[in-house]
């Protein structure tokens, strides 16, 4: 299953972040790593299912988790 990084809006409360994670789980996602420096988490989703999370009211961004390289 593809993995995604979900970033919640800057003004999201801890309860709203938890509600976003709950929504992800209800949509078939599996929470992996939870970040402390940003309001976000890593989630794996069945192919094509992440679009419901992108529209969630507390979500700022959803990016496919991938390796990042610097020059």
UniProtKB/TrEMBL annotation:
Q: Which InterPro entries match?
A: PBI_I9, S8pro/Inhibitor_I9, S8pro/Inhibitor_I9_sf
Molecular function as annotated in GO? endopeptidase inhibitor activity
Annotated ranges, domain Inhibitor I9: 3-71
Q: Where is the composition biased (Basic and acidic residues)?
A: 53-71
**What is the top-level taxon of the source organism?**
Eukaryota
Name the segments for region: Disordered. Answer: 52-71
A Gene Ontology biological process noted in the UniProt record is: vacuole fusion, non-autophagic
Per the UniProt record, which residue ranges are transmembrane? Answer: none
A Pfam family assignment? Inhibitor_I9
Q: Which PANTHER family match?
A: PROTEASE B INHIBITOR 2
Name the family the entry cites: Belongs to the protease inhibitor I9 family.
Question: What is the name of this protein?
Answer: Peptidase inhibitor I9
Organism in which the protein naturally occurs: Apodospora peruviana
């Amino acid at each position: 299953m593809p993995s995604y990084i979900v970033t919640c809006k800057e003004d999201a409360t801890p309860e709203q972040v938890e509600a976003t994670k709950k929504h992800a789980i209800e949509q078939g996602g599996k929470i992996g790593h939870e970040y402390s420096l940003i309001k976000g988490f890593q989630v794996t989703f069945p192919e094509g299912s992440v679009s419901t999370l992108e529209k969630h009211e507390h979500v700022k961004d959803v990016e496919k988790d991938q390796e990042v390289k610097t020059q």
